């Protein structure tokens, strides 16, 4: 058993990297990885984790890092949550798994019931199914939308990332994820995401939003008729695409278009969900603005690192599936008992520790720090986000807005060598993303900000 005092020490510690990085123990494991794991399972960080607590991780050589990507959006409640650990252990004492299509376990029903009550769908009276990954959630959300509407076409967006399976890599815009495995699946069309920072020069916000809405009409006229579209699939804040929030005014207009044409609106909340935005879902904001989605796909932070994802939709939508494809949704491991036990504790922690409020506070502090850096460095063109999901876009100059991916790549490598884990995003790989566990301390946040500042300065000096 780990020493509890030592784990507490890690939870409250600050980043510290000493000696050669990666250290000898990490390098030995990285050498074995290179021999045994496909290089296409990409990892650009020489970081070999041993343990984690809160927002901190420690590697096998004893170096400590503040994690600003949270296992890429998975650790909203933080590493090593004692209640999660205890719940998973207790469940393991009884059984690991029972397939939901064969037998029912209470944890599945308890978690579905709670999410049904919390998920802000348009209908409001919900049903939920569980699978294992974000890509599986999107696959099933699309399947449900097609079954309900009787239509076969989907509209996704520029900059979108929805997964790496055959369907979701087709929905994904960045083609490095599907290059070499074409042809893509048919029946997928692409609208232009409302990326206000890169709207036509000189446009006001209102003109920019109308510009992006006009693109949808163009697709209906020259791509696929509206009456043949089953659903729009949209990230409320694009993740891999560059941490770009969809303006609520745009979503409201899109909701109206969907209602007029009988089209489903699917919110991909895989990365945005579970208190990250200051609400349980960004769709909560959508509902407050009168534009709730029909279907919500969720994953990542749903179970604090135990593989789990879900799809929630109104009862009428969900129950139509069985009429069309008997037994057509579900899967062997969906709603695994260990994962559901973890998921229930995650909801408790979010509620009891007021992590949605904490997300707003952390996000405010982070944005203030990033905006101070923006004042200092001309290469930071934009700071944007909702709650604690924030992106910094780096450009070669603010007038042309030419992306600066080589600077971002250098900043990331410099930062990790100093004890800060950050990651790039954006179609041009020129955005740094902030997805820090919501339990991060103010001292850890400030330490990370200092490392980022130093890393930008050093990286710029090397490139100039």
Automatic annotation (TrEMBL):
Catalytic reaction list: 4-aminobutanoate + 2-oxoglutarate = succinate semialdehyde + L-glutamate; (S)-3-amino-2-methylpropanoate + 2-oxoglutarate = 2-methyl-3-oxopropanoate + L-glutamate
Domain of life: Bacteria
Keywords: Aminotransferase, Plasmid, Pyridoxal phosphate, Transferase
GO MF terms held by the record: (S)-3-amino-2-methylpropionate transaminase activity; 4-aminobutyrate:2-oxoglutarate transaminase activity; identical protein binding; pyridoxal phosphate binding
EC number(s) given by UniProt: 2.6.1.19, 2.6.1.22
Record InterPro entries: Aminotrans_3, Aminotrans_3_PPA_site, Class-III_PLP-dep_AT, PyrdxlP-dep_Trfase, PyrdxlP-dep_Trfase_major, PyrdxlP-dep_Trfase_small
Pathway assigned to this chain's UniProt record: Amino-acid degradation; 4-aminobutanoate degradation
Cofactor: pyridoxal 5'-phosphate
Family indicated by similarity: Belongs to the class-III pyridoxal-phosphate-dependent aminotransferase family.
Listed PANTHER family: AMINOTRANSFERASE CLASS III (PTHR11986), LEUCINE_METHIONINE RACEMASE (PTHR11986:SF58)
Protein name: (S)-3-amino-2-methylpropionate transaminase
